[in-house]
């Protein structure tokens, strides 16, 4: 292993911080027939008059069982975007530290760097969207705290090579965040199974994609108990609301329904991939392990506008590095996919 030392990565103010202690943190024994007069809530029951569990224990218990991890390895957030922001705020000193991101990738890593006033060192993916280990390690200096890896990657769709990621986990002394927002669409193994091997590994997942719950905002962070404890210290006390917790519990138990939806999306994707071969202005169809496909066309602005005319909104990714004239198509229902295919062939 490298010289990873979590303590040396934590911001001094976070280390020194005495976290806010909420009423529900101080007294959490919900099961007893107690009278709760400690949180200045309205006592009349309507289902949400009480503050939610700040540690979301029921949601975490289900996740822990399903994923084979312990409760102390899980932190939940208001979407994975909140989780990613917490990671910045715990470990990156504004105007001093830096992070490494690997464009073309999910834009929020860079936006969060800007919000937190942290330098973002961009090291482009190479060779069909794989990390360039030498260039990444060259970019690392003593202020580099975080390395963001998105796998499967948005917008390219591919899984990043496991041996390359392993090499980075071993060589980089900071934290490696592997964003697995799309992992449920992939046949590749999740990095969750490697948490024990790498104390510098953070895996993020979300209920927004395969789980079909983008509207409730629930992001998940898996890491060592030590890393989770640091993030817990700075998270807003009630960051995951009661309605979200309730809906997540219901949905997480719908394992068969979710699997069925993923299968249907995968069948739709394979059909779209085949049909795209017949569209003469499609120049490249990039391999995808996600619920979307990136395609290079002759003129992305023109094709985007034509699709819009036909009532179909896709994502134009042309402004991203290495994505010139690229459109990203999310896989929809069978009818939606057919509408897209028909429109593409007519244009
Ligand atoms: C790679 C990646 N990570 C995270 C997110 C956001 O996830 P959430 O909805 O949990 O904030 C997205 C959304 O598009 C994404 O593409």
TrEMBL record:
Enzyme class: transferase
EC number in record: 2.6.1.9
Alphabetic keyword roster: Amino-acid biosynthesis, Aminotransferase, Histidine biosynthesis, Pyridoxal phosphate, Transferase
UniProt cofactor(s): pyridoxal 5'-phosphate
Xref: SUPFAM superfamilies: PLP-dependent transferases
Pathway(s) served: Lipid metabolism; Amino-acid biosynthesis; L-histidine biosynthesis; L-histidine from 5-phospho-alpha-D-ribose 1-diphosphate: step 7/9
Modified residues (N6-(pyridoxal phosphate)lysine): 209
Record GO terms (molecular function): histidinol-phosphate transaminase activity
Catalytic activity: L-histidinol phosphate + 2-oxoglutarate = 3-(imidazol-4-yl)-2-oxopropyl phosphate + L-glutamate
Record-linked InterPro entries: Aminotrans_II_pyridoxalP_BS, Aminotransferase_I/II_large, HisP_aminotrans, PyrdxlP-dep_Trfase, PyrdxlP-dep_Trfase_major, PyrdxlP-dep_Trfase_small
Aminotransferase class I/classII large domain ranges (all copies): 46-344
PANTHER family cross-referenced by the UniProt entry: HISTIDINOL-PHOSPHATE AMINOTRANSFERASE, HISTIDINOL-PHOSPHATE AMINOTRANSFERASE-RELATED
UniProt family annotation: Belongs to the class-II pyridoxal-phosphate-dependent aminotransferase family. Histidinol-phosphate aminotransferase subfamily.
Subunit structure as annotated in this protein's UniProt entry: Homodimer.
Protein name as catalogued: Histidinol-phosphate aminotransferase
Species this protein is from: Aureibaculum flavum
Gene name linked to the record: hisC
